[in-house]
């Protein structure tokens, strides 16, 4: 698949990769080159998104899961939950890509009909 600016923007959105205000692509998990690579190595946008979410799962690192300040306590999303979410997203987009690929691969059927002999 050929990478274009529009596809790169769409892929970044589907991967939930926002460039921070005042930031650059270097402030995200995927640079434009990384996104272009995902697109060129994929048959469809959904396939590229599935690969991207799989890579995001691999990039996850453990952070503090909860902390408290005085009487206030803050619970953050655990690494296990973030990993499960990233892999679920990858699985979802891979299923969509497989469905789209299956639609394209359907062939045509030709039926021959022979009329019955009538007396």
Overview of this protein structure:
- By secondary structure, this protein is mostly helical.
- The chain is 50% helix and 7% strand.
- It has 4 helices and 2 strands.
- It has a two-stranded antiparallel sheet.
- Strand 1 and strand 2 form a beta hairpin.
- Helix 1 packs across helix 2, helix 2 packs across helix 3 and helix 3 packs antiparallel against helix 4.
- The protein is elongated.
What secondary-structure arrangement, pairings included, does this model have?
Elements: H1 5-14, H2 32-40, H3 45-59, E1 66-69, E2 72-75, H4 79-104
Antiparallel strand pairs: 1-2
Helix pairs in contact: 1-2, 2-3, 3-4
Which features would summarize this protein structure in a list?
single chain; 119 residues; mainly alpha; two-stranded antiparallel ribbon; 4 helices; 50% helix
């Amino acid at each position: 698949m050929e990478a274009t600016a529009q596809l790169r923007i769409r892929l970044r959105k589907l991967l939930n990769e926002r460039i921070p205000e005042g930031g650059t692509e270097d402030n995200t998990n995927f640079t434009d080159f990384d996104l272009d690579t995902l697109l060129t190595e994929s048959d469809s946008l959904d396939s590229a998104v599935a690969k991207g979410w799989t890579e995001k799962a691999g990039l996850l690192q453990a952070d503090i899961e909860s902390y408290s300040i005085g009487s206030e306590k803050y619970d953050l999303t655990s690494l296990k939950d973030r990993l499960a979410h990233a892999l679920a997203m990858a699985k979802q987009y891979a299923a969509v890509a497989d469905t789209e690929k299956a639609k394209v691969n359907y062939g045509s059927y030709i039926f021959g009909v022979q009329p019955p002999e009538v007396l």
